[in-house]
Specification:
Oligomer: single chain
Order of helices and strands: HHHHHEEEEEEEEHHEEHHHH
Number of helices: 11
């Protein structure tokens, strides 16, 4: 088994690394999260995505007719890895690139692909995901937002919640109930909604990080053209699961976990206890070793998935394993850092005595949200057990 990239792939890695060294924005963006509010930040972020796209480093595996380069998944993986290692700014079009774009390529009409994919690539249109509702989080199929068909339109009424990035979004890919009498996994449709339509209200929710990236979204007789239906009427659950597959891959990043572990290791080398570095403490060294083993296991799991992609094999439950293992690992890394810092972990970012620029308290809070978002850990375990291991359903 050869786990190394080819010579050509390593040359490509060096090429993107040089590009990032020469073009990475020097200030004003940072690594970013979708919780930023100011318009100046948003416009700079869009400009960064456009530059990446024009340089050939966005959606490399997409078909050429839709703006991609039809390259194998290895090239996109290399770009993603180098972006994480360079601490590159958050792409505002991430939901479109990572979730909706691949879904439209598989399920959209030709008109939808031509209309939406180019503006996803350039960041001209920002997308958000309208799935969760009050009372319909883990049990997503119980959603109640209604879409009544009147002529050539859907008329949408209801509410979505935990909608990341809705305060910036131009469009939403949304699940709505179009047949209230059908079983809950049926009668759901997947539609594309213009967020500038009359009748839409976005209300930001302040997270414990202080960000306002989550939102409530209310629909009051919102008119949506029927041509914005993706897939078949009342069969949106199939399309929705295709999008969830891509979302779970985004949430569980092996490269991100590796970067966090390296940052944790650097931190613990600086922290002194009993006159010596924390990395020399036998108990904490064992904890670091356990975390590094989990990081390496995640990396090998990702390489196996990459092999499956190259060979065109169905990934099965592997994306759910990504999400489950990756998000819990990242939170455990942050927890280890918080405990290593002791009382210093409680300091705010602006405090003069803060350690590691206040990265870890923020990361600890943010990573806890990702354990819940995209399907909670206990839901992922149930799905992995039932679909992957063929175990009986829990009662």
């Amino acid at each position: 088994m050869d786990l190394n990239f080819t010579t050509a792939e390593e040359e490509f890695r060096l090429k993107i690394r040089r590009f990032l060294e020469e073009n990475l924005p020097k200030s004003g963006l940072g690594a970013g999260r979708e919780g930023r509010e100011d318009k100046a930040w948003l416009e700079k972020s869009k400009a960064w995505q456009r530059k990446l796209y024009e340089s050939g480093y966005v959606a490399l595996a997409w078909p050429k007719e839709y703006g991609g380069q039809a390259l194998d998944p290895v090239c996109q993986t290399i770009v993603n890895d180098e972006m994480v290692r360079a601490n590159a700014p958050y792409l505002p079009g991430g939901s479109g690139l990572g979730m909706l774009g691949p879904t439209l390529i598989s399920w959209g009409t030709e008109e939808q692909k031509r209309r939406y994919l180019p503006k996803i690539l350039t960041g001209e249109e920002i997308w958000c995901q309208g799935y969760s509702e009050p009372g319909s989080g883990s049990d997503l199929a119980s959603l109640r937002t209604r879409a009544e068909i009147i002529g050539d339109e859907f008329v949408v009424n209801g509410q979505k919640v935990w909608t990341s990035g809705a305060q910036h979004a131009d469009m939403m890919f949304c699940l709505v109930r179009t047949d209230p009498d059908a079983p809950k996994h049926r009668g759901i449709s997947y539609i594309l909604i213009d967020m500038h339509s009359p009748g839409i209200t976005v209300r930001p929710l302040v997270q414990m990080t202080g960000d306002k990236g989550f939102n409530e979204v209310f629909f009051d007789n919102v008119h949506v053209p029927r041509k914005n239906l993706v897939g078949k009427l009342n069969e949106g659950w199939i399309v929705a699961n295709a999008t969830l597959f891509h979302e779970r891959n985004m949430l569980g990043s092996a490269t991100g976990s590796e970067q966090r572990f390296n940052r944790l290791l650097a931190l613990t080398k600086k922290i002194k206890r009993g006159g010596r570095a924390l990395t020399e403490d036998a108990v904490f060294r064992q904890r670091l070793a356990d975390l590094e083993i989990r990081v390496e296991a995640m990396r090998f799991h990702s390489l196996r998935q990459l092999t499956d992609q190259i060979r065109g094999r169905n990934p099965g439950v592997e994306t759910m394993i990504n999400k489950l293992v990756g998000t819990e690992l990242n939170h455990d890394l942050a927890t280890a850092a918080m405990e290593a810092m002791g009382d210093y972990s409680m300091l705010a970012r602006e405090d003069a005595s803060v350690l590691d620029h206040g990265y870890w308290p923020y990361e600890w809070m943010f990573s806890l949200g990702l354990v819940i978002g995209g399907g909670t850990s206990h839901i992922q375990k149930n799905i992995i057990a039932e679909r992957g291991l063929k175990m009986p359903k829990s009662r």
